[in-house]
Specification:
The complex is a heterodimer of chains A (about 350) and B (about 280). Chain A contains 11 helices and 12 strands. With about 350 residues, chain A is an alpha/beta fold. Chain B has a single domain, classed as MetI-like (MetI-like fold, Orthogonal Bundle). The chains are: A alpha/beta (about 350), B mainly alpha (about 280).
């Protein structure tokens, strides 16, 4: 499905939100929403970012579209670092990079009809005349499963699923290359989720789209993705192909996440790894490994040294001392044997 | 729009206000037809006469028909009200959009200036402005407009900040819509409800302020008929000719009452939370 050609490369992306404290609002502390992450997305594949709420997956998506200005890092699209463009220059690139938002109720302007909503992107980028735009609106509306008469209605006359279809149409009408789906189906009922996911998969094939799929729902992610990155506290902990990640997870965090998926075979005994505690405060992350406070396999080294994010197998990246071959102690080796 | 009228029709109190306002507008437009006499015509023989068949609401100290003067006074009141609120609302919309959209320093500067205006009582500020510009109808309108600007700015700014939080604004940015279009196509239509309510309420305030200024001799200059001016003139005679003061007062009170009724019911009707049926 995917060719090995990265269309989008994110390198050392950081986004720190300053925390304003005190009477004079001096910036004292930073919330490290995204803390030095790197990944590549290949053409026509679906790359997913999963993680708990607040782990920085949405911030990553929004930073790529520069809806937040990243603190540092590079985002290479078509060989160019899009962070170097001015806002005006970047605007013309926006038609290649589109986003679908989580909440279908607040992501559509209530005072515009579906037709106006769908025509706006075309007219904004001066892609075609008004007449031509109208024709395209009908084409795309039918493609996402709306009927022609529905096009002159207002968003509040639609259900959540239909609204999300409108959002999809609005993003795809520009023929983008990369679409960022930020929890695109999370607000929908499970039955509607399936419809929308299938629609997205069909559209991906038809328009040769590349998806960055951001979600907390492991089942959905498994269903749609080619490769998955697991995020925790602003960092990618593990990244590999979907099959490998779901069948042979390496990082203790991924293992615990996967153990939490309810099984379809209730009689089959499955060991659940229940994490203790909460996600640490991202403005004050723990020393060493960000996951060490909750990790069931924590050892001394974790609090001292930050694990290196490295490729431990072909296309399988992990940031964990358990798999650091360079200077593994005997004790660590034993631990590894015990758990794999 | 049709739904809006239907809702207004259901709200009897608001409807009453709307009818009252329409009646005042009707009277103002057709003043020459309705009024039995010219507002300036002096029947010196009949000065300070009480209400009678000939002079419906009595006459003032120059023998002018109070009924006719009240009818012509409606023209002034509405004209000043509409234009003054127009000035205040336009300025407020512009400043509010700028402050709310850009936030940060721009917002701080605009809002602190508005706070300075807010600190003065309305009438004192209007008096000062008129005193500087010189008393005339036009200057009254400008003064009232300036007095109302901070209220509109604050309301628009608040609404803009609220609307900006919505994902459809982020969505528009993501699509590449220019900031100018975002402000006018996505933000402005969505802040209209509180804005329109404020316009209705400000109209009554403007009419009252105009009456106050005229009463203080800084608004509409005699012999032009205005409700406030009539009150001012009748102060001397009110003890033995109460009709000279009662009827203009009733005109002011009823008009403002109607605007307030409509304003209050519009606030309910245009509340977006109630708008989903």
């Amino acid at each position: 499905m995917s060719t090995q050609q990265p269309i989008l490369r994110v390198a050392n992306l950081k986004k720190y939100f300053p925390q304003k404290l005190g009477l004079f609002k001096r910036s004292k502390n930073h919330v490290r929403a995204v803390d030095d992450i790197s990944f590549e997305i290949y053409e026509e594949e679906t790359f997913s970012l999963v993680g708990e709420s607040g782990c920085g997956k949405s911030t990553t998506g929004r930073s790529i579209l520069r809806l937040h200005e990243p603190t540092s890092g590079e985002i290479i699209y078509q060989g160019k670092n899009i962070l170097e463009f001015s806002k005006g220059e970047f605007r013309s690139y926006r038609k290649d990079l589109q986003m679908i938002f989580q909440d279908p109720y607040s992501s559509l302007n209530p005072r515009m009809t579906v037709k106006q909503l769908l025509m706006e992107p075309l007219l904004t980028h001066h892609i075609c005349s008004k007449k031509e735009a109208e024709k395209r609106v009908y084409d795309i509306a039918v493609k996402v499963g709306l009927t022609k008469p529905q096009v002159s209605k207002y968003p509040h006359e639609f259900s959540g699923g239909q609204r999300q279809r409108i959002s999809i149409a609005r993003s795809l009408i520009l023929n983008p290359k990369v679409v960022i789906l930020d929890e695109a189906v999370s607000a929908l009922d499970v039955s509607i989720q399936a419809q929308i996911l299938n629609l997205l998969i069909d559209l991906q094939e038809e328009f040769k789209l590349t998806y960055l799929f951001i979600s907390h729902d492991l089942n959905v992610v498994q269903h749609v993705s080619d490769r998955v990155g697991v995020m925790y506290l602003g960092q990618i902990m593990e990244m590999s192909s979907t099959d490998e990640l779901y069948n042979k997870p390496l990082h203790p965090y991924t293992q615990s996440l996967l153990s939490a998926i309810p099984s379809t075979k209730p009689r089959e005994k499955k060991e659940r790894i229940i994490l203790k505690g909460d996600v640490p405060d991202p403005s004050n992350p723990p020393s060493g490994c960000p996951f060490r406070l909750r990790c069931p396999k924590v050892h001394e080294r974790c609090s001292v040294e930050k694990p290196v994010y490295q490729e431990v197998k072909q296309n399988h990246w992990v940031a964990c001392h358990l798999y650091d071959e360079r200077n593994q102690t005997d004790k660590d080796k034993k631990l590894e044997e015990q758990f794999i | 729009m049709r739904q809006f009228i239907k809702r207004l029709y259901k709200d009897k109190v608001g409807l009453l206000g709307a009818i009252g306002i329409l009646l005042v507008i009707f009277i103002a437009i057709f003043a020459p037809v309705i009024a039995p006499y010219s507002p300036d015509e002096m029947f010196t023989a009949h000065a300070l006469e009480g209400p009678s068949g000939e002079f419906l609401l009595g006459t003032d100290e120059f023998g002018r028909d109070i009924f006719s003067r009240i009818i012509y006074g409606a023209q002034v009141s509405l004209q000043v009200g509409l234009i003054a609120v127009g000035i205040g609302a336009s300025l407020g919309l512009i400043f509010g959009l700028i402050a709310g959209y850009f936030q940060g320093k721009t917002d701080q500067i605009i809002m602190r200036i508005m706070d300075v205006f807010f600190a003065f009582p309305d009438i004192l500020l209007a008096l000062t402005i008129v005193a500087v510009l010189g008393p005339s109808v036009v200057n009254t309108m400008v003064a009232i407009g300036i007095v109302f600007t901070p209220v509109f700015t604050r309301i628009v700014r608040g609404a803009v900040i609220g609307v900006k939080e919505n994902e459809y604004i982020t969505n528009a940015v993501a699509i590449g819509v220019s900031p100018f279009k975002i402000v006018f196509k996505h933000i402005t239509p969505n802040i209209m409800a509180p804005f329109i309510v404020q316009i209705t309420l400000a109209l009554s305030g403007a009419i009252l302020t105009e009456a106050s200024l005229s009463f203080l001799g800084l608004g509409v200059q005699p012999p032009n008929p205005s409700w406030g001016g009539m009150l001012d003139a009748s102060r001397t005679y009110m003890e033995f000719a109460p009709w000279t003061i009662i009827f203009p007062t009733v005109a002011i009170v009823l008009t403002i009452f109607c605007f307030n009724l409509l304003g209050d019911s519009l606030r309910d009707i245009l509340d977006p939370k109630l708008n989903k049926e």
